[in-house]
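sorry for the late reply, my laptop died twice this morning and i had to redo everyting from scratch. anyway the thing you sent over, i finally got around to it. pasting the sequence first so we're on the same page, its 271 residues, then the predicted structure underneath. double check i copied it right bc i was rushing
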Amino acid sequence: MDGKRIAQGDLALLVSKEGKEFLVQVEKRVFGTHLGNVDLGNLIDQPWGLTIGTHRGKTLYVLKPSLHDLTRHIKRRTQIIFPKELGFILMKLEVGPGKRVIECGTGSGSLTLALAWMAGPTGQVISYEREEAFSLLARENLERLGLADRVEFKVKDIQEGFDEEEVDALFLDVKNPWDYLEQAHQALSGGRTLGILVPTTNQVSRVLFGLEEKGFVYPEVCEILLRRYKANPERLRPEDRMVAHTGFLVFARKMLQGKGEKGDGVVLQQQ
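ok and here's the structure:
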């Protein structure tokens, strides 16, 4: 299958004209909605982008789900990192094919999914989580999407450090990231990026105090807001509600440590 047609087992996004979404796995079965039933078997070997009618005469668009769609529809037991942050995180961490990335705080797996998607089949994501139930849920989500083979799930407290060294990027989504900056420094390659997500300003301050001490430089703090508009060409205006604050992002680069005080870098002497 060339990917331009729907195969059995594919995930499909069914969308009504009113914007109601259903993420379904295409197989020979009837899928029921409040808009009516759909025979998913009729989609097999059909092109993406067609419409299908329900038994009540309602129309659904059949779309290939994007990474944005998949992250919004994963099963969750924890607060997830929102798509508005995910794209920026992936760029700042330079996640791409073949990269080896650690995340700590697997949760329901939204960032895990994005990292695995971008690292590709040649990359590797190592995901640490203290709560086994969360790790199992994230694994289930990634298996459903066919990306679990790109992720190594570990149920472990990172107080004693990470098992890996010289990784390309590392992200901390934990309550007390300042307690794990030294462990993160040991796991990262020189010059690579550490990313952190925290919800409050006092947490940001504690992180910033610890970064320089533990050998990180070039800190950056930001908050990402997304304002949506009603897609009506005759009455174009902002939505009445928006998801405002979801978290602060902190990024910094690892410096190689010399023999001096903590935070000193290895100095290259000019000849």
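The mean pLDDT is 93.
thats about all i looked at so far, will dig more tmrw
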